Amino acid sequence: MFVAMNRFRIKPGREAEFEEIWRSRDSHLKAVPGFRAFHLLKGPAREGQALYATHTVWDSKADFEAWTRSEAFRLAHAGAGSKRDLYLGPPEFEGFEPVEGTAETAA
């Protein structure tokens, strides 16, 4: 398993616009080998910024890296730079590999 996260600092008052961009985009992820899950997470509002993170789960780091080199990745990110005025700096990427964990169980 590999977890890829991007942290976004958004200008105050622009949260709804940022969220709509993510809701309305075609991520092209569902057809990508090794993809498991995606979440857009809203964090705490801090003075001068709203914090968000994207969180994707992959079967492996190699699957994630293959996605970043794929046509699906290029299509999903084609308009990414068009709304730069929403952001307080570039996104910050963080990648994580498991050390320990437990699986969810059905109730």
UniProtKB/TrEMBL annotation:
It comes from the Bacteria. GO terms for molecular function: monooxygenase activity. Keywords: Monooxygenase, Oxidoreductase. Signal peptide: none annotated. Residues 2-96 form the ABM domain. The keyword Lipoprotein does not apply. It holds the Pfam family ABM. This is Heme-degrading monooxygenase HmoA. It comes from Tistlia consotensis USBA 355.
